[in-house]
């Protein structure tokens, strides 16, 4: 910086002091442009529809929306269901994180992988599975939970316990056991150790997991839409209803703004408190120890969570194999058809198998897009900063690219429709529209998987490579590539899984002749007929199995940051 | 019996026998150092005493009562780690008062005890500092105060000074010795550093590959190392065997033994000395001259001379053996 104010500095020196910020800006430009065109523009277009009436800004009308009693109900439901989902996820996820990462249990690696799968499962599939389990005719129909708020909270827990296990489990696994041992030697009982030493040490991971889970619960779309029916609506599903069914854009915009504000606050909190493991401290994780009598509570909670995860999936699988009063593969054979409604008209424009192919193709496109942008973002935000300004800029960028995590996918999807409709951005009919939207949804996950690994590389390694004569590119190849290829592969797997299951934005953007699998499932569910229902179950099983295979492959890579935020 | 007693204790990790049939006794008020190279099982032994590792065979008892089923937090043994392991989210006062809080000691009484302990470890006025603001030596002092706050029946010290630099280590070792004496604490110390052991402990047990190879009073162990490896580990510079050993022992006026351990300072120039040789190199240290002397019939050996002696490389010199700086070793160098 001193070079820039000094008049005697040579142009070469001035260049070198400028080149760092310029490189930073240059690298950030691509991702920022992508985010600008495909996120900020659509979202603001959507908001503008609500705020601008007849060419003039109308804030009062938007505020009026917030005074509607129905909106109050929706807000209240969103808050308490998200809070309840978060509490449940923590209550089951924390003991499971302890049991699966600190105890020497048989099968603990497969169990960890199994409990990670729900996180990437398509929300529509989970909705279907829970409905099937809880419906009056289902195995748990006697509980009378079908269409209840409890079912929604259970659905949210199904997804988000995985996030808690992942984020807190990896932190717990790497936790130095010696402070806890020191406390025990000072006379602290296991419970006191947990309260006074372990939980404070896990606080960053806990706070970050809690805020992200709350975010996911509060913006959950597919679960609330399929399980909530007409009785319960959250902000996210309400935006969908308002835009899609009622065409009340003003109200939708008002809710979107509210949602964005809350999400930004939560993201800032999560960003501040995110667990950043000290990369200079190389520690080998402690050996897991054998389960003791005191671990019974944790094991029971883990068992409950397993039941919660396995029961709906099993019920889904069994349902898809049900033909009349017997068993068979009829529903799977019917996937090659377009379904049938009582009048004889076709339910779908294309066979379900075509939709599966579309889904896979779309997922491939979304994956390379999110990887390309995500890798650039990860590089930009993790390079060693010189000076406070540079550090602020980098952490600001980091937060900006997390935004798609919490902004309503419905808002993004609808925004795409209205913002990318005319030249020069007439992408409405482009086959790339759906993958672009899905890539945006997957982007935060990709960044969060790669960035911690890149950030953990000691900058002095690159300096050492440079001092030995390696060019910057060569230095990246020798220093960064060996550590980043696995996380990159893991991120690719996650992006693929997220894209396969994405429903919120896709439901707006997918064309009728090229629907993705989740869209087809939702449509099949909306049509009466035993075969349609059976086909929806079979398609769900196919989608869940595909996702599970991808996620299990990712889990085998054993990247600690994969799926953590 | 009173105090700690280990009776044929073994600790097994899967296929590895980390502690192999160890028996030790420690009377109340005494300090025992378990000395051994890294990986010899001494830390595992300490953790087993603390109740952090299950014992696979044998018993650990206190005052004659088996501690088998007693969990760590009910043993009343405080444990102090190599790097202190202070709780980073608590102040110095909070760390020291941690165990008092657990015992529901009132705030005023707690504050008084914390101040008392801070004074004992020489850190008066540090109560409100956070561990991150302390130096390595200060952190160890706080860790010691925290461990002493429970008034433990037994204090377990895991390489308490190893993480510190040399000067600080020497000073803190003396302080530690004094603090343990003043508070009358029974302590079990494990270390790989013989100087730390000598500075702090009353008794010593030398451990190798999971087994205790020698134990007893400091001076007993020092005067009569059980074997060559032990002698080298205790800080003797060389071990000579056979005729060479006999020559040194005869020159020292001692009984002949299969081997002899010599310190670097065992040979000193003396006009009437029994050995003769030629100075091959010399180096000045703050305290003395360090010589390498090519001794007739014995080869190259270390010797020391006062700083004011006029010696130069190539000079002939006569040497005597300082009896207090050699030790007869009963057994031959073990094959391992």
UniProtKB/TrEMBL annotation, chain B:
For this protein, the record's InterPro entries field holds:
AAA+_ATPase, ABC_SmlMolc_Importer, ABC_transporter-like_ATP-bd, ABC_transporter-like_CS, ABC_transpr_FbpC, P-loop_NTPase
* SMART domains in UniProt: AAA (SM00382)
Query: Can you name this protein?
Result: ABC transporter ATP-binding protein
Sequence ranges assigned to domain ABC transporter in this UniProt record: 4-234
What is the organism of origin for this protein? Nocardioides bigeumensis
Which keywords, in A-to-Z order, does the entry hold?
A: ATP-binding, Cell membrane, Ion transport, Iron, Iron transport, Membrane, Nucleotide-binding, Transport
As one GO molecular function, the record gives: ATP binding
CDD domains, alphabetized: ABC_Carb_Solutes_like
- UniProt key word Hydrolase: no
């Amino acid at each position: 910086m001193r070079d820039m104010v000094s008049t005697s500095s040579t142009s070469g020196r001035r260049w070198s002091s400028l080149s760092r910020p310029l490189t930073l800006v240059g690298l950030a430009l691509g991702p920022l442009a992508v985010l600008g065109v495909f996120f900020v523009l659509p979202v603001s277009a959507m908001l503008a529809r609500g705020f601008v009436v007849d060419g003039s800004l109308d804030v009062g009308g938007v505020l009026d929306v917030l005074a509607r009693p129905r909106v109050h109900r929706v807000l209240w439901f969103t808050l308490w269901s998200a809070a309840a989902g978060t509490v449940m996820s923590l209550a089951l996820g924390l003991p499971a994180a302890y049991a699966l990462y600190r105890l020497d249990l048989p099968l603990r690696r497969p169990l960890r992988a199994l409990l990670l799968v729900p996180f990437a499962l398509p929300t529509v599939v989970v909705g279907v599975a829970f409905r099937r389990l809880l419906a009056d005719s289902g195995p748990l129909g006697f509980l009378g939970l079908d269409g209840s708020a409890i079912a929604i909270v259970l659905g949210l827990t199904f997804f988000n316990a995985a996030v808690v296990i992942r984020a807190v489990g990896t932190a717990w696994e790497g936790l130095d056991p010696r402070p806890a041992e020191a406390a025990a030697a000072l006379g602290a009982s296991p419970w006191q150790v947990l309260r006074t030493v372990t939980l404070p040490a896990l606080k960053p991971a806990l706070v970050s997991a809690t805020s992200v889970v709350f975010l996911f619960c509060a913006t959950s779309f597919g679960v609330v839409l399929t399980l909530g029916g007409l009785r319960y609506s959250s902000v996210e599903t309400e935006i969908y209803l308002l835009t899609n069914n009622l065409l009340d854009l003003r109200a939708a915009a008002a809710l979107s703004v509210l949602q964005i504000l809350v999400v930004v606050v939560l993201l800032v909190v999560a960003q501040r408190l995110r667990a950043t493991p000290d990369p200079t401290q190389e520690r080998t994780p402690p050996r897991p120890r054998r389960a003791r009598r005191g671990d019974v509570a944790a094991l029971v909670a883990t068992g409950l969570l397993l039941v919660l995860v396995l029961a709906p999936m099993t019920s889904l699988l069994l349902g898809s194999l049900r033909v009349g009063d017997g068993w068979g593969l009829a529903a799977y054979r019917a996937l090659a058809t377009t379904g049938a409604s009582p009048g004889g008209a076709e339910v779908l424009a294309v066979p379900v198998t075509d939709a599966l192919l579309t889904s896979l193709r779309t997922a491939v496109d979304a994956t390379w897009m999110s990887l390309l942008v995500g890798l650039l973002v990860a590089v930009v935000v993790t390079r060693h900063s010189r000076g406070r300004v540079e550090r602020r800029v980098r952490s600001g960028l980091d937060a900006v690219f997390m935004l798609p995590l919490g902004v309503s996918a419905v808002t993004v999807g609808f925004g795409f429709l209205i913002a990318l409709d005319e030249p020069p951005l007439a992408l409405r009919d482009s086959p790339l529209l759906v993958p672009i939207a899905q890539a945006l949804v997957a982007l935060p996950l990709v960044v969060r998987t790669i960035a911690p690994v890149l950030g953990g590389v000691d900058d002095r390694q690159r300096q050492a490579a440079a001092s030995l004569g390696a060019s910057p590119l060569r230095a990246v190849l020798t220093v960064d590539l060996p550590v980043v290829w696995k996380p990159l592969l893991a991120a690719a797997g996650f992006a693929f899984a997220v894209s396969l299951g994405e429903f919120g934005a896709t439901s707006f953007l997918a064309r009728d002749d090229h629907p993705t699998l989740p869209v087809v499932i939702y449509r099949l569910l909306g049509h009466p007929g035993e075969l349609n229902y059976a086909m929806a179950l079979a398609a769900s099983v196919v989608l869940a199995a595909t996702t599970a295979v991808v996620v299990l492959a990712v889990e085998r890579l054993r990247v600690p940051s994969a799926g953590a935020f | 019996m009173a105090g700690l007693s280990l009776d044929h204790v073994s600790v097994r990790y899967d296929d590895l026998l980390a502690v192999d049939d160890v028996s030790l006794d420690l009377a109340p008020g005494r300090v025992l150092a378990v000395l051994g190279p890294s990986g010899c099982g001494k830390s595992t032994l300490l953790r087993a005493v603390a109740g952090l590792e299950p014992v696979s065979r044998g018993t650990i008892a206190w005052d004659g009562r088996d501690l088998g089923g007693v969990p760590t937090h009910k043993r009343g043994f405080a444990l102090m780690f190599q790097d202190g392991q202070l709780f980073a989210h608590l102040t110095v006062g909070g760390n020291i008062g941690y165990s008092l809080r657990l015992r529901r000691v009132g705030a005023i009484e707690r504050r008084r005890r914390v101040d008392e302990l801070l004074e004992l470890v020489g850190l008066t006025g540090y109560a409100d500092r956070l561990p991150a603001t302390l130096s390595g030596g200060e952190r160890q002092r706080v860790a010691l105060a925290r461990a002493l706050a429970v008034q433990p029946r037994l204090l377990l010290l895991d390489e308490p000074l190893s993480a510190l630099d040399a000067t600080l280590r020497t000073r803190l070792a003396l302080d530690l010795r004094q603090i343990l004496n003043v508070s009358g604490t029974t302590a079990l110390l494990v270390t790989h550093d013989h100087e730390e052991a000598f500075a702090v402990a009353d008794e010593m047990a030398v451990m190798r590959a999971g087994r205790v190879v020698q134990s007893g009073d400091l001076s007993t162990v020092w005067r009569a190392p059980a074997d060559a490896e032990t002698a080298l580990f205790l800080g003797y510079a060389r071990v000579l065997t056979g005729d060479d050993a006999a020559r040194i022992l005869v020159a020292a006026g001692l009984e002949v033994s299969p081997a002899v351990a010599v310190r670097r300072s065992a040979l000193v120039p003396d006009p009437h000395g029994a050995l003769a040789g030629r100075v091959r190199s010399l180096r000045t240290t703050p305290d003395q001259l360090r010589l390498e002397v090519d001794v007739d019939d014995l080869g190259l050996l270390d010797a020391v001379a006062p700083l004011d002696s006029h010696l130069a490389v190539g000079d002939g010199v006569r040497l005597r053996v300082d009896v207090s700086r050699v030790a007869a070793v009963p057994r031959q160098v073990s094959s391992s």
